[in-house]
C-alpha cells in the first residue's frame, strides 16, 4: 500500500463495470499519476490528482492497483 507523500502510477482498476466507470469519471485511469497526501491505517486515503483532492474509502482503494513512480521510471 502506498505511503503518505508517495507518487504512484495506476496500473489496473478492478471491480465491476459501475466501479470502474465511477473511478474513470473521477479521473482515476490506467497510466494516471497520483500523489497520496493522507493515509489512514484502515486503508482510507486522500489522493491528489493534479489540483484535485479525492478522499477514497477502503472499498475504493482496494480496487486501484498502483506502483511507485520510481519503479515505472526505471523500467
Entry keywords:
single chain; 75 residues; alpha+beta; five-stranded antiparallel β-sheet; 3 helices; 5 strands; 25% helix
Write a brief structural summary.
The protein has 75 residues and is α+β, with helices and mostly antiparallel strands. The protein contains 3 helices and 5 strands. It has a 5-stranded antiparallel β-sheet with strand order 4-3-2-1-5.
Structural overview:
The protein is α+β, with helices and mostly antiparallel strands. The protein has 3 helices and 5 strands. The protein has helices at 17-26, 58-61, 69-73, and strands at 7-13, 33-39, 45-49, 52-56, 64-68. It has a 5-stranded antiparallel β-sheet with strand order 4-3-2-1-5. The longest helix has 10 residues, at 17-26. 16% of the residues are buried. The mean pLDDT is 91.
Amino acid at each position: 500500500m502506498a505511503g503518505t507523500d508517495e507518487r504512484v502510477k495506476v496500473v489496473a482498476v478492478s471491480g465491476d463495470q459501475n466501479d470502474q466507470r465511477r473511478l474513470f469519471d473521477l479521473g482515476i485511469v490506467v497510466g494516471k499519476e497520483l500523489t497520496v497526501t493522507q493515509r489512514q491505517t484502515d486503508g482510507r486515503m486522500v489522493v491528489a490528482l493534479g489540483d484535485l483532492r479525492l478522499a477514497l474509502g477502503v472499498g475504493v482503494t482496494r480496487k486501484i492497483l498502483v506502483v511507485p513512480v520510481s519503479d515505472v521510471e526505471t523500467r
